[in-house]
Amino acid sequence: MYLRAAHAESSIKTLLEFIRENPLGVLTTAISSPSYPLLQSSHIPWVLDFISEDPDAPVKGRLRGHMAKQNPHSKAMIESVTATGSPSTSQLQQDVMVLFTSMHHHYVTPKFYTETKPSTAKVVPTWNYSAAQVYGKATIYYDSSYPQTSEYLSQQIRDLSNLCETSIMGYTGQGDRVEPWKVSDAPERYIEIMKKNIIGIEVAIESIGGKFKMSQEMGKGDREGVIEGFTKLGSDVGNHIACLVKERGEMKDATAKEAAK
Asked: Which CATH superfamily is domain 5-108+126-213 in?
């Protein structure tokens, strides 16, 4: 990921919070195989276990996810770990990458640059977005007949369901909110069958980077034009982008002011 200084986010805590708020990540691997493509990617919703915001910590957090065993991506990972690993769980030799992107992103028209466009016209379109990218080692849990794998998968699906039901759907059971769906609402035998058809993936986050590309590189007048332009769109995405442009612009100005002291 290209981390231009104006857009880069250096706070590990902020990046981990971003992942929690945007749990759908794209897992990418590069596994040599006679049967499957070298590069494969899969969209996976993740549960994040926070460990440390210390940039020198060997592991900053852990991502827990699962995917269908019939997915060719799963088959390539199983093929790789079974070549040297145990029959229940093993670690991929190659690092993996997981990319997270905010649901709020948008094209930026040069018409929004109300300061530079009228004066020089030296402006071009761009795209505002936020993203975080992690690298680390992945442990694969692929045989649910083993207690360690079965326990991992049970915890994973419980935690992911609870995260999505409460944080995303808002089903908290409090006040006028409905109760969240629980894994225990489904027949136990059915869940056991489902577990046989998925694999668990745990990624130890060894490296993390991210950016909030929200027009920080522009002058204050142009940023104000971008805020106004997105607000006038009258959409949820436009309003969210406008707020982020304002927030990130103020952060940039505060940093510059502090550096000038």
From this structure: Electron Transport, Fmn-binding Protein; Chain A (2.30.110.10)
